[in-house]
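Sample pair:
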Amino acid sequence: MTQKDNETKVAAAGAFIGVDLRSKIPAYLQIVEHVRALAASGNLTPGDQLPTIRNLATAARIHFNTVARAYRLLDEAGVISTQHGRGTYVVAPPPSAQARQERIRALDLLVRNLLQAAVRIGCGPEDVQAALSRAVGRPATEHRRRSHR
């Protein structure tokens, strides 16, 4: 822990979570943004343990409910996981390849449902393709030319 006037930094797995009491930004938002930035930059990695709510609150000279609010927001956002009695840890973001596959599966399901609905109203795949091209703002023939290159 380091203190400089109204600013406190608390070590978390080699990185520092800072709270500036003079800032116009609420302390809980400072903690949220700091932890997010540390996780995004790789300074906090999955499995790293954060300070307990009480330890961070005491070191930063803020109420423990302020830290609890920040941790709750981070937990809801999937940045950390609080395990009662064990601590609070940084969690791994879903692998981008896995997340992309899940999005593609969901999109495929939507397209199948769209095609089934189109058939029920008497439209074929070409009609659906033309409608999709109009919806994204380019003519179907332009889309076909680009996809055949």
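The helical segments are 27-41, 53-60, 64-76, 96-120, 125-136, 140-147.
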